Amino acid sequence: MESISAIQPDQKYPPDSVGQLIEPNVPVVSPHTSVLEIKELINKNIDEFRTINYIYITDHSNKLTGVVSIREVLKHDNHRHVSEIMTTDLIYTHPYTHQERAAYMALKKKVKAVPVLDKDHHFLGVIPYDTLLSVLYQEISEDLLKFAGLTRGHSETDDVMSLKVLTSLKHRLPWIIIGLAGGLLIARTIGAFESTLQNNLILAAFIPLMVYMSNAVGQQVSAFVIRDSALTDKLPFRKYFIKQSSIVLLIALIMSTILFGISVLFYGDFNIAKILSVSLFGTITSSILTGLTIPYVFVKLRFDPANASGPVGTVIQDFLSVLIYFTIASLLI
């Protein structure tokens, strides 16, 4: 029977890797340890253990062979060996895995701590539950800031009251400038279709609808890409692209059909209804580019995909929506 894992985390692991979060002070025993011995071990070292949600079973070479929850230990007779009650269906991560992926995996598998193993399956320690929650909070906060177009250094606080005005301005202004440039480009695009607008002023009223619907669908797709990329080591892009695209196409078909019916009902003009429905189908379909393709490229290039879903993605989607809308209108009028 062992008391506490003596493995210490390597300080050379990357900053956002699991290796930086390893907690070695956990109950570790051999397969032949009895339930009584485990209880004595916990009672003796309760103040030293970082977490006691699970008991970790290793062999003579410190390779993890099984895990058993403290609940299971307390349910069995003292004479039982831990090898009889442990589970060998292990959920674990590696020290070089990104901390966000490990945290999402813990949520998906519904575990309160995640063992960390090296490439040879040696037990290094665990990531405790409170650390996992802290990681999730940090990563979600960062993603929300990026969605809003805010940048920040790792050493700088998010607290507005603690930041200097110039520092806060530096975080926010670059993306706002990108938004301004994108807005000017969109304005010129609309200006290029001035004659179309003059003859059909009703089309101008539907610009916000086209822009909003495509952005809403794109943001949905992007959120799934970011989440699924965090949960899956190797996302099968072809299958994933086909499935997501089919969902987007179905959404586009349903929404454009609804808009066609409403337009005919309100305006009694089949040509306007046709322009609006076909345009909405096209703009929503274009969200596959900004919501799926661009974030996936960011993932492959090892950039944070949340950056693709902020103001840059929004500006690109707005431009595509306006361009598609007025191009279709010019062709069908």
Automatic annotation (TrEMBL):
Database matches in InterPro entries: CBS_dom (IPR000644), CBS_dom_sf (IPR046342), MgtE_transporter (IPR006669), SLC41_membr_dom (IPR006667), SLC41_membr_dom_sf (IPR036739)
UniProt keyword Mitochondrion present: no
GO molecular function: magnesium ion transmembrane transporter activity
One GO cellular component, as annotated: membrane
Annotated compartments: Membrane
Main location: membrane
Topology versus the membrane: Multi-pass membrane protein
Pfam families: CBS (PF00571), MgtE (PF01769)
Residue ranges constituting the CBS domain according to the UniProt record: 22-84, 86-142
Keyword field: CBS domain, Magnesium, Membrane, Transmembrane, Transmembrane helix, Transport
Xref: SMART domains: CBS
Annotated transmembrane regions: 173-190, 202-226, 247-268, 280-299, 311-332
Family of this protein: Belongs to the SLC41A transporter family.
Protein name: Mg2+ transporter
Taxonomic source organism: candidate division WWE3 bacterium GW2011_GWB1_41_6
Lineage: Bacteria, Katanobacteria
